[in-house]
Amino acid sequence: MRRAVEVRHPSLVAPEFVELLRAEGIGLVCAATVAWPRMMDVTAGFVYCRLHGATELYASGYDAPEIDFWAEKIVG
Predict the structure, then answer these.
(1) CB distance 45 to 4 below 8 Å
(2) Which of 10, 11, 31, 62 has the most CB atoms in a 10 Å sphere around its CB?
(3) Tens digit of pLDDT for each residue in 20-51?
(4) Helix and strand numbers, DSSP H then E, in the chain
């Protein structure tokens, strides 16, 4: 079973937390949101991105440059 953690509190933005996730093979959710920290470390054999809203949580979309940004991150 895959496991993933979405960070919503700044206290978890720490190298030690990232290393713990990596050691346990737990994915770090890359949350694109205006409300919580964005962490983009790869900590498992999969990547999980959540696009919560570009300017307003759960209510706003993404324009073409923002979609291009995420596409580049995903495709490489």
Answers:
(1) no
(2) 31
(3) 999 999 999 999 888 889 999 999 999 999 99
(4) 2, 4
